[in-house]
Amino acid sequence: MSIYRSPEKIAGYLENWIREKFREAGVKRAVLGISGGIDSALLAALLAKVLGPENVTGVIMPCHSMPIDEEYARLLADALKINTVKVELSQVYDAMTAALAEGGAAPDGLASANIKPRLRMTALYSIAQQQGALVCGGGNKDEITMGYFTKYGDAGVDLLPLADLLKGEVWATAEYLGVPHEIIDRPPTAGLWDGQTDEAEMGLTYRELDAYIATGEGAEEAKAKIEAAKKRSEHKKKFPPMARLPENL
């Protein structure tokens, strides 16, 4: 028996969910980052179908990115007929890292890489505020389970429509909705550095992740990695603790 749900039913449910959330917010427009990856592609397809492509803006945000990323993003935008805005963030990133270095706090490794999604979040909210739109994010259940996202970066959004979808369901639903096969077949990557892939960085395949999340079954090494990542990233999934002063203070 398959661990995956029907892509037709998934698409139908999420279309209704998106429609209701926008109705509740009194908003008709959506803004999202399009990276040329499968998650943002599926999200864009759902938003275009519900809101109309004229009400969806896909933002392309190169930040020392590979040119192929923009090519895939434009392929998607052309296929869906959504609006695009390009915001080149490479010089902004360079200025930010230079300012940190000048102050004696030069970032490296993940601290440096995570500046990129946080700059993108800032750009998305600037555009959304101008357009009276909601910012939508493409985080899926695998990424959220693992904490494989940047706090106040790609997780800084108004809606996460794909949050309960296993990665296999993302692929299947994208195919059902007609996302270009070039994007569906592309190895998932956050594009944080040249040659980076999601599976290599996590040390797990999406097939292993899907199986464990859906059934609790898997190789002991995989289970240990997933549980450790869940515990390590728990703070990312909660609102910051807020001090409450007692009434009799």
The CATH class is identified as: Alpha Beta
Low-confidence segments, given as residue ranges, are none
Largest sheet: 4 strands, parallel
Q: Enter the CATH topology name.
A: Rossmann fold
CATH superfamily: HUPs
The structural class is alpha/beta
Radius of gyration: 19 Å
If helices are DSSP runs of H or I spanning 4 or more residues, what is the number of helices? 12
Shape-level CATH architecture? 3-Layer(aba) Sandwich
Distance between the termini: 59 Å
Give the neighbour order of strands across the main sheet: 3-2-1-4
Q: How many separate domains?
A: 1
Structural account:
The chain is an alpha/beta fold and 249 residues long. It has one domain: HUPs (Rossmann fold). The protein contains twelve helices and four strands, in the order H-E-H-E-H-E-H-H-H-E-H-H-H-H-H-H. The chain has helices at residues 7-25, 38-51, 67-80, 90-102, 109-113, 115-131, 141-146, 167-176, 181-184, 198-202, 206-215, 220-232; strands spanning 29-33, 56-60, 83-86, 133-135. It has a four-stranded parallel β-sheet, with helices on both faces. Strand 2, helix 3 (67-80) and strand 3 (83-86) form a beta-alpha-beta unit. Helix 1 (7-25) packs across helix 8 and helix 2 (38-51) packs across helix 8. The radius of gyration is 19 Å and the shape is globular. It starts with 6 loop residues before the first helix and ends in a 17-residue tail after the last helix. The mean pLDDT is 95.
